[in-house]
Amino acid sequence: MVLVPTYCERENLDAILDAILDAQPSFHVCVVDDASPDGTGEIADARAADDDRIHVVHRVRKDGLGPAYLHGFRWALAQPQRFTHVFEMDADFSHDPRYLGPMLRRAEQDGDVVVGSRWVPGGGIEGWSKLRLGISFGGSFYARQVLGVALRDLTAGFVCWRRRVLETLPLTEVRSRGYGFQVEMKYRALVAGFRVVEHPIVFPDRQRGESKMSMRIFFEGARSVWWLRRALPRPPG
Hints:
Layout: E1 2-6, H1 13-23, E2 29-33, H2 40-50, E3 54-58, H3 65-77, E4 85-88, H4 100-109, E5 113-117, E6 124-126, H5 130-147, E7 159-162, H6 163-168, H7 180-191, E8 196-200, E9 202-204, H8 215-231
Parallel strand pairs: 1-2, 1-4, 2-3, 5-8, 6-9
Antiparallel strand pairs: 4-7, 5-7
Helix pairs in contact: 5-8, 7-8
């Protein structure tokens, strides 16, 4: 199951659904829409009516990336198909569907959690300014140093979760709402003793639509790592 959270992504939605299902015809996709005023949810509903691999969850308002994914995780775990793995993935093509297969194979072979990583050999970012690159790399480095972990791309949003990880983690205790959610989930997985591995991806800038990143979200993520350090034990090893 691939979870795709959306807010005002009508320009990208049809294309990303096609690309995911072309790359992995046996996969299912769930669009988790936060009441997009541009009609994204209606486009998703129309696609779901024509393809039983596409599902839609409607939320009543824009409430942050973390709550959207947590809602999607709980929904995916409750489905009768009992999906073995659940992916997080953006709708804007910054996460290329061609990596879905390789990331799933890594999860089946040697990882409970597979992170699509920009900061390991073979990974990278295309189309960003030096300032934006510095902020992104610096954010991951900062979180890594504060939390004392070796994972290089803690802020990555392209992730494959083995089902039992999501069933084990206390999802009701996850408190980060913005991009700090990505750090918190990976750190909780490490604390619980799961194997978190990184698979290199190249991350291009979005071509259509607007980024949801803001300074408020950035600083929320920076604060969240200190809360995690105080609130949770250090990962084993």
